[in-house]
Amino acid sequence: MTGAVLHGSGAASARLVLARGGEDEPPVTIPRAPAREAAERELSRPAYHENDPSLLQRALNRFWEWVDDLFTAASGATPGGGLGLLVIVIAVLALVAALWWRLGTPHRAPASAPVLFDDRPRTAAEHRASAEAHAAQGHWNQAVQERMRAIVRSLEERALLDPRPGRTADEAAAEASRTLPTHATELRAAAQSFDAITYGARTATEPTYTRLTTLDNELTRTKPTLSSATQGASR
């Protein structure tokens, strides 16, 4: 009975030794660097990354995390917390919209004063006809431009202004104001409207065109005021 027990115990021990590859053999160990490289190679297989978010999705996630952190920090420093921050944001947006509506589209000032006429000379009647054609189609920018050119060309035709290439609207208004002082304010306003529309990215309206048309009609009926020097030269 005892021999049988010993025999069974010896067989179990033999199987344990065989399973371990022999009790005298050292355990199998792998250096750290090759083990890490092997693990990286294994984890780099596509099967492990089928459900990973795309590069764009990861970038968006980082962006929204940054926005959330920013608003969280701002709401913590703002009286009233998140509600107070929302009120401030709405107030700032309203202020920007009001400034945009009041000042118009930001624009870069021209490097030099704009020229009133192009290279092809036309008569005052031609400029007026072009202005009326644009006004009939609701093209108020072009209508205002042509009406201002008609005003200046008419003054040149009446010898109230010397024909001069390269003259600007401001220069024409300043020179015409000397012989037409009662219309000096309207002439300066007309020149400013011309510059703002042509070079300032402003949009003209029908009232602007109506003011220039009224000025044009009044100037054709107004007699110039000659200075003493001019009167003496004309005798």
Number of helices: 10
Overall average pLDDT: 74
| DSSP summary, beta strand count | 0
**Helix content percent band:** 55-70%
Anisotropy-based shape: elongated
Distance between the termini: 160 Å
Low-pLDDT windows of residues: 1-22, 108-112, 228-235
In percent, how much strand structure appears in the residues? under 5%
Largest sheet: none
Based on secondary structure, the structural category is mainly alpha
List SSEs in N-to-C order: HHHHHHHHHH
Radius of gyration of CA atoms, rounded to a whole number:
44 Å
Structure characteristics:
disordered C terminus, single chain, elongated, 235 residues, disordered N terminus, 67% helix, mainly alpha
Fold and architecture overview:
The structure is a single chain. The protein has helices spanning about 1-20, 30-45, 55-75, 80-105, 125-135, 140-155, 170-180, 185-200, 205-220, 230-235. The chain is mainly α and about 240 residues long. Helix 3 (about 55-75) packs across helix 4 (about 80-105), helix 6 crosses helix 7 (about 170-180) and helix 6 packs across helix 8. The radius of gyration is 44 Å and the shape is elongated. The N and C termini lie far apart (about 160 Å).
Question: What topology does this entry show?
Answer:
Blueprint: H1 2-19, H2 32-43, H3 55-77, H4 81-103, H5 124-136, H6 140-157, H7 169-179, H8 184-199, H9 206-221, H10 228-234
Helix pairs in contact: 3-4, 5-6, 6-7, 6-8, 6-9, 7-8, 8-9
Give a short synopsis of this structure.
This protein has ten helices and no strands. It has helices spanning 2-19, 32-43, 55-77, 81-103, 124-136, 140-157, 169-179, 184-199, 206-221, 228-234.
